Amino acid sequence: MPMVVNVLESLDLPIIENQQLQVELELSKDDNEQLVNAFEKEKINKKKIEAKLFESEFQSEEEKQQLQNKIDSLESIVKIFELKSKTSSEHAARLEEKETETKTEFNKLHTRYNDLLRNHCDLMERMKILMKNDNATSMPENLNLSSNNNSKSFLNKRNELESPSNTAELPSENVNKSGAASPSMSKLAWEKDLSLEDASIIEDVEGIPRDKDSHGFT
Fold first, then answer.
1. Which residue intervals are annotated with compositional bias (Low complexity) in the record (predicted)?
2. Structure-derived torsion over alpha carbons of residues 172, 176, 182, 183, reported in degrees to the nearest 10
3. What's residue 120's pLDDT?
């Protein structure tokens, strides 16, 4: 009897341990299933993350390429603008030089015009003085010629009364001579004054085309 009790007691202990092991086994199975599910989820998430990473890398490469293309285009545009600025600065310098040349030419032409205008005014004043002198000299000559013509006509009429065969041609000749005296005298005086006093004015007027040719005008 005591042997049976001892055997039964000894059997109870392994049964209890077996039951505990079964419980632990069930728990470990549950844990294993949870771990497997978590592993599958992590695996799926990893694949998604890798796909997103690949897409982001591809997009970053495309963006990098686009940015590099933009940088290259901007560099080319900068070079073009630098060349344009250089050419524009050179053109501005040429325009400034041309402006200074045109200003000097304008000043020369302005002084030339003032000289010619001054000479023209002097010439007009001299012409007025010559016309006044011609008028002043022609008036007493006309008076003397008219008195002489009157006296000659009186004598001719007297001679006609005395001798009808004589013709009266002298008064008409004297009148023609007196009428042609003042223009010839004024013309001679005009030519004399121009040839002696205003030769420099004629040279200035003749020198205008040479100045134009020397300055490059057409």
1. 142-156
2. 160
3. 94
